[in-house]
Amino acid sequence: MFEVRIHGRGGQGVVTAAELLSVAAFLEGRHAQAFPSFGSERTGAPVVAYCRIADREIRTREPIVAPDALIVQDPTLLHQVAVFEGLRPDGYLLINSTQPVAELGIGEVTARLRAERLLVVPATALAQRILGRPVPNAVLLGGFAAASGVVSIDSVTAAIRDRFSGPVAERNVAAAEEAFGFVRGEIQEIGEITHA
What we know:
Blueprint: E1 2-9, H1 14-27, E2 31-38, E3 46-54, E4 69-72, E5 92-96, H2 107-110, E6 118-121, H3 123-131, H4 137-148, H5 153-163, H6 166-195
Parallel strand pairs: 1-4, 4-5, 5-6
Antiparallel strand pairs: 1-3, 2-3
């Protein structure tokens, strides 16, 4: 089973991201579940959503405490809540930020992760440019597909089109595909640096 925890703030599409990820896995013939955990239910409040993906039925319903992947939709949460709690040493970490990892002040976390699994994506900036709104969820799912390979970009875009329609769907698809390409480029660059 592959477990993903998504951190963000109300209004950023955190719950939708988990749902889209589960639909993408389902479209690939796997079992999946997605569910949120709310604190105070208001725009801007911290929100956590979970997604499990497996090749067989998923019976557990508890929150994910040891995720295989973390997606952080709002970098202001990095020092406000325990977003890194339980992240496996071989896990994936995808952070929405325009700053490089070295400038995020999370050296104690990054020191124990593999470089090619620790990625920063300017998701809000991409969303603002492509969607006209600062909603990073679909962008980060495209990046997650590139980083992890757990789901394909085709399944992510199909899930987006299943959830949305018309221009909204197509702009979200374009944003996810751009993030997919961005992360692929970042991974290639990291590989070239480590092999130099």
